[in-house]
Amino acid sequence: MKIALINENSQAAKNGLIFECLKKVCEPMGHTVYNYGMYSAEDENQLTYVQAGLLAGILINSGACDYVVTGCGTGEGAMLACNSFPKVLCGHIVDPSDAYMFSQINAGNCAAIPFAKGFGWGAELNLEYMFDKLFSTEPGGGYPKERVVPEQRNKKILDGIREITLKDMMTVLKEIDRDFLKEAISGEGFKKYFFENCKDEEMAAFLKEVLA
Predict the structure, then answer these.
(1) By CB neighbour count within 10 A (0-12 exposed, 13-18 middle, 19+ buried), where does 38 fall?
(2) Rounded to an integer, what distance in angstroms lies between the CA atom of residue 82 and that of residue 89?
(3) Sheet containing 67-72: which strands, arranged edge to edge?
(4) Residue 35, SS3?
(5) What is the pLDDT of residue 114?
(6) Residue 127: band (very low, low, confident or very high) from pLDDT cuts 50, 70, 90
(7) Cβ of 150: how many Cβ atoms within 10 Å?
(8) Using one digit for the tens of pLDDT, what is the confidence trace for 98-110?
(9) Does residue 142 contact residue 104 with C-beta atoms inside 8 Å?
(10) Is 13 exposed, middle or buried (0-12, 13-18, 19+ CB in 10 A)?
């Protein structure tokens, strides 16, 4: 699995810590982790949590990654932004039980974590335990086990409804404010990792045009 980390500006100073925790847990499982930044609060390319959601939409819809880890001060804004884009199903993850149940019940592809609220002693341990519960088990297995069938049925219904209510990603990219989009994709990490992993030629060509 390809996992992308995206940090918005308010919590960018914690990018290194989060990235190391993510790699420590996920790389031994065989997953590959890509750090899309922000890398520090002083980065020239500043990302808001809304732009983090836009990037999550681009990465998931293009096939450049399979899962996005992001967040903000509370995790709420990042979750709302991510869920505004097609094919991104983002959960608000605070502790390991959240992570496990979101993975098993909702089978999402994006996690929004509070990187300020409650982020004190043992924060790195909590991150490691959450990442373990998110990525060590095949998603969608159900919890509790007697609820597997209705949970899997509801997930398919939700996916179907989202196909109706959300526009496709190329339509979003063409209609969204061009300057806002260009700011979101101008970061060092995006240019470094996105185009080599993107599986959607139309989207890649469009974004190269935006960056030109």
Answers:
(1) buried
(2) 7
(3) 32-35, 2-5, 67-72, 110-114, 90-92
(4) strand
(5) 98
(6) very high
(7) 10
(8) 999 999 999 999 9
(9) yes
(10) middle
pTM, rounded to two decimals = 0.95
Q: Are 76 and 34 a contacting pair, CB within 8 Å?
A: no
Of residues 104, 54, 42, 46, the one with CA closest to residue 78: 54
Average pLDDT over residues 48-65: 98
Peptide bond into 29 cis (omega under 30): no
What integer pLDDT is reported at residue 6 of this predicted model? Answer: 98
Report the pLDDT value the prediction gives residue 182, as an integer from 0 to 100.
Answer: 98
185 in Cβ contact with 207 (< 8 Å): yes
110 close to 91: Cβ distance less than 8 angstroms: yes
| Secondary structure class of 31 (helix, strand, coil) | coil
Q: Judge whether 71 and 22 are in contact, CB under 8 Å.
A: no
Q: Under a CB-based contact definition with an 8 Å cutoff, are residues 131 and 5 in contact?
A: no
Q: Which tokens in the block code for residue 8?
A: 């918005």
CB 62 within 8 A of CB 202: no
Write the single-letter amino acid at 96.
P
Q: What is the SS3 string spanning 50-82?
A: HHHHHHHHHHHHHCCCCEEEEEECCCHHHHHHH
What pLDDT score was predicted for residue 31?
98
